[in-house]
Every structure is written in structure tokens, then in C-alpha cells.
Amino acid sequence: MPSLTAEHVGGRVVIRLNAGVRDGRERLTDVLGELLEISDRSLLIRRDDGTELKIDTEAVVAAKPVPPRPVRYSAIARLERVAAAHWPAPDTAELGDWILRAADGWTYRANTALAAGEPGMPLDDAVAEVEDWYRRRGLIPAFSVPLPSGRRFGAELEERGWTGNSPTHVMTRSLTDWTAPDRPDLPPVTIGQAPNMDFLNMVSARRGSLPQIALSVLTGAPRTGFATLRADGELLAIARGAVGDGWLGLSLVEVAEAARRRGLATYVIDALIAWAGVDQAYLQVESFNEGAIALYERLGFTLHHTYVNYVAPSAS
Ligand SMILES: CC(C)(COP(=O)(O)OP(=O)(O)OC[C@H]1O[C@@H](n2cnc3c(N)ncnc32)[C@H](O)[C@@H]1OP(=O)(O)O)[C@@H](O)C(=O)NCCC(=O)NCCS
């Protein structure tokens, strides 16, 4: 009997099977994929090529869960570009595959050179160009380096004296099996194309006052939804959704301190998912924000990749 239970359904597993006897010897074969169903008699596996295989438990020699399939570097670069378009800097330039972004210094996301892919020139020249581009704008040169694809480049920057901040987690979830929370006790969430005063007040209370340019970053995505939840005259929760390229990007999820752990973040996220009408969602969360990571994991988001922001040494 395999050492898998219903707990493992939805996870990635490897099954060692008895594939019969040939030339007088027992042959074994491995099947790797997602466990879709399990019973006393059989297992249903979806292999990486998408085909499904029903396996008789009597043929199973061993079975165990394995870590999720590593994310391809090309998928990391694609999602990073989507996220860049969802949080668009008004001032950009391309350097090979890299995207240089500036927004008067408002947020790392809009003021770092996104180093996904190759700059198309020797590294020293590319780094010098980036430094020059930012310094001409009065900004501290900074890179956003997706990992693990950019590990080597990150090490090169460190050798040049650049400082890496703590990583940000990029988490994703397919929305095809999303189940809406049942909350008849709550009023509907309001979703507008632009942020209202409630939204802006809650964001600036935590992040400090918003410069003029923030509005153009916040509303510049292909489609934006600014969710606010009010009850009994009080603002309880906000979240921003950006839609483009088939993705919903969630950002600025926040619940009033006194109203936390009542399912309100879950509720506003659900409203944005319904509003977005797309099949996949992602978000970016700082690795030290344990509460938010716990929330997103609880909602079924998993780690896609991370990125680190690197800041130039001040003397260079
Ligand atoms: C993170 C935050 C949005 C969560 O909002 P919330 O309304 O309390 O979340 P929910 O009630 O929908 O949480 C659902 C589940 O997520 C998990 N969760 C949420 N906050 C958690 C925390 N601080 N610690 C551990 N688990 C947490 C729990 O499993 C929770 O279910 P439970 O309360 O039954 O245990 C809120 O704490 C907040 O506004 N933090 C400051 C802003 C912030 O960090 N935003 C995220 C930026 S990426």
C-alpha cells in the first residue's frame, strides 16, 4: 500500500510501479505528477505532460510526496514583466532584456532596473549604464533581481559593493478552483477604477503621504480596481487589483487594525477575484511579513519565486 493519503491530494508525488516481468526480471518504473484522487484500490495521477494515469494500488512498490516542480526561469521573467506593467513607472528604458524604471523614487517596484534576462552587453558596461541612468534622475541606482534565475548576477552586484535588501516573495494561485467565502453578514465591497479618499488615506497612513506620481503608478495598469469595505460608517479594508495579460495582481491589501482576523482581507480579495474574471493571480509580499504570508498560504497561494532589491554603494 502506498504511503500516501487523502492529505496528499493536489500535491506532487512520485510513484514507483511494478511494470511486469521481462527476461525473468521484475521491471520497475517511476511516475511523477500531481495526485488527483486516492482510494484503497487506485491512484489517479496527472503527469507533467497533462495526461492522466489511473494506477492500481497493487502495482505500487513505493510512493511519496515530492517538492513542487521548479519554476522555469522563462516563467519568472514573464511574470516579472506582467507585474512591472501592473505597477508601471512613468519613466522607463530598455537595456537588452532589462527594464529601467523610475517614478520619482516612489516604491522600489517602480524605481529599480528589472534585471530579468540579459542586458546584451558586458556586465560592467550594463551596470555602469544603469547607474548613470538613475543618477541623471537624482535617484539612487537600484536593481530588482529575480531569484533563483538572477543568483549569479546578484553575487556580481555584491562583489561590486551593492547591498541586497531582504527578499520579496512572489506568490501565485490558479483561480479556476477558487471558492468564494460565504459572508452574508458583510456589506458588498465597493470597487472603483481609481482610488477614493478612503483608499488613499489608508495607504498613506501606513506608507506616509503619497507624492503626486503615486496616482499615476497606481492607476497606470491596463485595468485597475480599488476595493474598499465600509461598515457602520467605518473603513475596514482595502485592496488594489490590476489586470492584464490574463493575470490579476493583488497589492495594497490592508485591514484596519481593530478589524483583523475576521476574514475581511479574504473577503476583499474575493471581491477583486470576481471583478477581475481571470484564471490566475499573483502578489508580492515581503519575506518578513509573516502574517500576510500566512493569509496568502491559507488562501492557496504558493511561492513562485523571490526577488531581491540591490542598492548601489553610495560612493560609486
Ligand atoms: C495581513 C492582513 C491583510 C490580514 O488581514 P485579515 O483581515 O486579518 O485576514 P483574514 O481575517 O482574512 O485572515 C484569514 C486567515 O489568514 C491567516 N492570517 C491572517 N493574518 C494572520 C496573522 N497576522 N498571523 C497568522 N495568520 C494570519 C489566518 O489563517 C486567518 O484565519 P484565522 O483568523 O481563522 O486563523 C492584515 O493583518 C493587515 O492589514 N496587515 C498590515 C498590512 C499588510 O501587511 N498587508 C499585506 C501586504 S502584502
TrEMBL record:
Q: Which Pfam families match?
A: Rv0428c_C, SH3_Rv0428c
Entry keyword annotation includes Transferase: yes
Q: Which Gene3D superfamilies match?
A: 3.40.630.30
**Is Ribosomal protein given among the entry's keywords?**
no
Q: Enumerate the spans annotated as N-acetyltransferase domain.
A: 189-316
Q: Which UniProt keywords are present, listed alphabetically?
A: Transferase
What does the record give under GO molecular function? acyltransferase activity, transferring groups other than amino-acyl groups
* InterPro entries for the chain: Acyl_CoA_acyltransferase, GNAT_dom, Rv0428c-like_C, SH3_Rv0428c
Q: What is this protein called in UniProt?
A: GNAT superfamily N-acetyltransferase
Organism lineage reads as:
Bacteria, Bacillati, Actinomycetota, Actinomycetes, Micromonosporales
